[in-house]
Predict the 3D structure of the following.
Amino acid sequence: MQGEGLAVCLPADIDTDLVIAGRYLRTKDRSIWAAHVFEDLDPTIAPRLKGSVIVAGKNFGCGSSREQATVALREAGVVAVIAPTFARIFFRNAINVGLPLIESDLKCSDGTKIAFNIRDGWVDAAGKRYSVRPLSPRMQEILAAGGLVEYWRAHP
Amino acid sequence: MSTLSERILGASAGEYVDRKVDRAFACDGTGLLALEAWKNMGAGHLAETTELSIFFDHIAPANNATTAALQRELRGFAKSSFMQFSDVGGGICHQLMSEGVVLPGEIVVGADSHSVTLGAFGAFATGVGATDMAAIWLTGETWFRVPESVGLHITGKFTGAAEAKDLALSYVGKLGTDGATYQALEFVGDGMKNLAMDDRLVLANLSVEAGAKAGLCYADETTVRYLKERGHDVVPQVPEPCAYVQDLDFDLSDIVPMVAIPHRVDTVKPVAQISGLPIDQVFVGTCTNGRYSDLERFARIVKGKNVAVRTIVVPASAEILAKTIRTGVLADIVEAGCTIGTPGCGPCLGYHQGVIGEGEVCLSTANRNFKNRMGVGGEIYLSSVATAAASALEGEITVPEVA
């Protein structure tokens, strides 16, 4: 699993209410989640997410178990999310919907070009290579399958 | 020598294991997404080895026709399967699972972050998202990374007006919102015998607000007695000496009424430091503080008086509502000028039954005060039931009197 994109930098402790507010959850229309992602944090973020790599502070995705937070990011075009730590339910949810997460303490600014390779365990940003906390083999398998639904379709 | 999480999961901290799940539950919101994921997984069968449940609690009754139509689909599925199903008004998933369902030593997974509440019984209880839940419906199993544990050593007994919620806010304040990420909390020590089941459910409930995967209390005589009254014979779990990655000590007699100020659960202060702050609404309820003992304590404080601001009280389950009717607690609450909502999550997550407007302040007994959660531009302060009752009477944040 590898990829690249331009950094969109966010602060620490972003909760899932801020990723997608409760008032947008009662629908199965994923484009609504993508359109309103981060609205209560900063409404100018959503239009910048296509092809981006989110580089956030610690504890990204804390709070509610709402899986719509991970789907919203994926549908908005986020290629991967990088943070020193993630809240654990968000972590599982992201892998389960095929959104790559990378645990790394990265220093960069908005627009920095980011490249990553999860299997080999590295992230490149602004000419520097950072190490990555490896995903468990199971998580790598789920991510490689494209998510947990696809994983179970392939392992009936 | 093992932690309780290691004993229940049967492996050492840091190991990845696949385990059969004893009980798995989803609610109206996550259940719908789980249903879609389960259908897309393609196998079409449900694991019969796991006790599966669906509870309508988050937006129940439905707030509009769109929600009602989505709920109709999930309700139809639940009723056509062998799953346990609780419809509108039955109550909050965690509360219903705590009314004589979850037993010590079980592995319990809920598609809601506050599923950690059930660790109060000495079960390993944790939250997942919808797709993980769908895979559990399919296989009856899931994977876990066995967590390291933080030991919270409790001594003494509450004095003054402090209650379990004040201890919970105190420990979240000490640990921070990510102080126990990927870890479990264990509540141990001599002081635990002074905490009733309802108190332990509050302590376990807030553990996810410190990032924890689970929050566990060892089953003891209190647990045995509580479950005996609900038809189960269980035995206590005896703690073994074990290594915690972090140890925190709390003497209950040092705990004072606390409040979490917007927009973080770990920004806590003694109520005395912000008393006098005007409020627009008080909300008493949720999986944190909507139990019978909470409503009884609230009624004792407001009985014969009149609340000064709109006050919404939502029992956590139908059983609790029925008991408050039988004992007269409900009449005391309504006669003091409060109103009652359908048993369930109420306005905690900002869908219905008491959302707040821009510029308004709500004092809530819930567990989250994130920005805009109960309404765009509104502010949420979190407190105990006693603080909420005293504040409702004054119309401003008020230190509760000694009970």
Q: What stands out?
A: DSSP finds 13 helices and 18 strands in chain B. Chain B has a mean pLDDT of 97. Chain B touches chain A through 47 residues (CB under 8 Å).
